[in-house]
Design a protein that fits this description.
Layout (H helix, E strand, L loop, with lengths): L2 E5 L4 H12 L3 E5 L9 H11 L3 E4 L6 H6 L1 H22 L2 E7 L22 H16 L4 E6 L2 E2 L6 H10 L5 E3 L3 E2 L2 E2 H12 L6 E4 L6 E2 H15 L12 E3 L19 H6 L7 H14 L1
Parallel strand pairs: 1-2, 1-3, 3-4, 4-5, 5-10, 6-9, 7-12
Antiparallel strand pairs: 8-11
Helix pairs in contact: 1-7, 2-4, 4-5, 6-8, 8-10
Bound molecules: NADP nicotinamide-adenine-dinucleotide phosphate.
Length: 294
């Protein structure tokens, strides 16, 4: 049986991954930030040596995109040096490391899906720190490091776009939402399932894109959330439905530049004989009861 070690286990992805491992009867150790700070190299080495995992999944990260602009050194410590510590510990033990990363490693000015081997060119601090982590993992573990890039994540645990839209919908507020940034809304439970597929396969080490298929804008995503909410609440068809308003990026400024086009290609899954995550809308429909009830 595979022995798993999950770091950052209290985060949005960490919680769905550990729930899936539990449901599958896998042997795993879940370490939250309080149990292991991955920026502490000696502690990371000791934790990995104590558990002796076959696979480490690093769900720990600095995910505050805007705050990273002002605190890049701290973000780099967690997103760059932390994975380097885990990669060194895995290399010493012969363990596999699965390291989630992000679409923000790309510039976001493409017009066709980014391939796994497309040249990264982060537009901001968060992307730079995540790219440093990717490079550290691949350098230390050329045959046993998996970079699993994801994007536009939502799930039952933690703050995310679906929960924010639901809160507004429940409060009767129709928000303005950016309609000129394209991406792939992705459910954390689907990413967790792909991580399990990868680990259970003979897929070569390297980069995989764990995002939903298809694409939409934040506005399109919001419209679908409002539609699902209204269907779930059995809204009277006669009543005026609540509909978000489309905004441009210029109308919704943020400290960190957001990629205009964040659609990722899925060729590596096909090459490895693993099905990529399905359409984003189907995923949202499957996820909705769990996320709405959380
Ligand atoms: N969320 C998204 O939309 C998104 C999009 C693309 C990629 N990703 C990537 O997906 C992965 C999972 O993201 P997520 O949304 O699950 O993140 P999350 O909910 O913010 O969880 C990250 C976890 O890491 C913990 N952590 C932070 N610093 C740590 C440290 N030094 N040592 C140990 N644990 C630490 C956090 O603890 P505290 O809360 O106590 O700080 C938190 O529990 C990350 O690699 C992220 O970059 C996320």
């Amino acid at each position: 049986m595979t022995r798993w070690l999950v770091t950052g286990a209290a985060g949005m992805l960490g919680r769905d991954l550990t729930a899936l491992l539990a449901a599958r009867g896998e042997e795993y150790t879940a370490l939250t930030r309080a149990d292991l700070d991955i920026t502490d190299g000696a502690a990371a080495a000791a934790a990995v040596a104590a558990v002796k995992p076959d696979v480490v999944v690093n769900c720990a990260a600095w995910t505050a995109v805007d705050a990273a602009e002002e605190h890049e050194a701290q973000a780099l410590s967690i997103n760059g040096h932390g994975p380097a510590n885990l990669a060194a510990a895995c290399a010493a033990l012969g363990a596999v490391l699965v390291h989630p990363s992000t679409d923000y490693v790309f510039h976001g000015d493409a017009s066709a899906p980014y391939a796994e081997d497309a040249a990264p060119a982060p537009a901001g601090a968060y992307g730079r720190t995540k790219l440093a982590g990717e490079r550290a993992v691949l350098a230390a573990l050329p045959d046993a490091g998996y970079i699993v890039r994801t994007a536009w994540l939502y799930g039952a645990h933690g703050k995310n776009f679906v929960k924010t839209m639901l809160r507004l919908a429940r409060g009767g507020v129709a928000p303005g939402v950016v309609a000129d940034q394209y991406g792939q809304p992705t459910w954390t439970a689907d990413v967790a399932a792909k991580i399990c597929d990868l680990v259970g396969s003979a897929a070569p080490a390297g980069i995989y894109h764990a995002t939903s298929s298809g694409q939409t804008t934040w506005f399109g995503f919001a419209e679908e959330i409002f539609r699902l909410h209204q269907a779930m609440e059995n809204h009277d068809a006669e009543r005026m439905p609540l509909i978000p308003r489309p905004l441009t990026t210029a109308e919704y400024p943020t400290p960190a530049k957001r990629p205009a086009y964040s659609v990722l290609g899925h060729a590596a899954w096909h090459t490895a004989g693993i099905a990529p995550i399905g359409d984003w809308r189907d995923a949202l429909h499957r996820a909705f009861p769990a996320v709405a009830d959380a």
